[in-house]
Design goal:
Largest sheet: 5 strands, parallel
Oligomer: single chain
Distance between the termini: 30 Å
Mean pLDDT: 94
Strand order of the largest sheet: 3-2-1-4-7
Number of strands: 7
């Protein structure tokens, strides 16, 4: 059975992504990534992700990437801004953290595929725009390392956000999110 590690934020999109991958026959595990310190923020969101994982019957991991986030994303943002540039921290975070450190973690676990709730498509060779042009996030993934593209799954790439909301309305655990 194919294994996939899903980045789970505790929100609707990542939970629906995990459900869709289960329905496609993947053995799903989740990972919650702590990126910064904000009182109560991570505890509350990890609890949501944990409840979703329990509902789905999957393992969820907690990955503390605060130090890596500060080095790769936050410092880059501050330094760029101080130089008069217009930094895009989401692009840096996706390249270095979500599709960098998360991929490394999946590899350590022996998991072949990585998925998130991003609205984007990937054919294994390139990032493509999502079906929902209003939610498309391909721009924010433009700089991820090309060698990870064959491992990426984006279950929401073919969905419209409105359809995700309708689907999610039928899932009991998502009524609390």
């Amino acid at each position: 059975m194919k294994r996939v590690l899903v980045g789970m934020s505790g929100g609707v999109d990542s939970t629906v992504s995990a459900i869709l991958l289960q329905k496609q026959g993947y053995e799903v595990e989740g990972v919650y990534m702590k990126l910064h310190t904000k009182a109560g923020y991570h505890e509350e969101n990890f609890e949501k992700a944990r409840r979703a994982a329990n509902f789905l019957g999957i393992v969820i991991h907690f990955l503390d990437l605060e130090e890596e986030f500060n080095e790769s994303v936050y410092s880059y943002f501050i330094e760029s801004y101080q130089k008069g540039l217009t930094p895009n921290p989401c692009v840096a975070c996706n390249r270095e953290i979500k599709f960098g450190k998360m991929v490394e973690f999946a590899t350590k676990l022996g998991i072949e595929y990585i998925a998130t709730g991003h609205y984007v498509r990937c054919d294994g060779k390139k990032i493509c725009k999502a079906k929902d042009s209003a939610k498309d996030q391909s721009y924010f993934l433009a700089h991820i390392h090309r060698n990870v593209l064959p491992r990426l799954l984006f279950p929401l790439g073919e969905w419209l956000k409105e359809d995700v909301k309708i689907f999610a309305h039928e899932i009991p655990i998502l009524q609390d999110i």
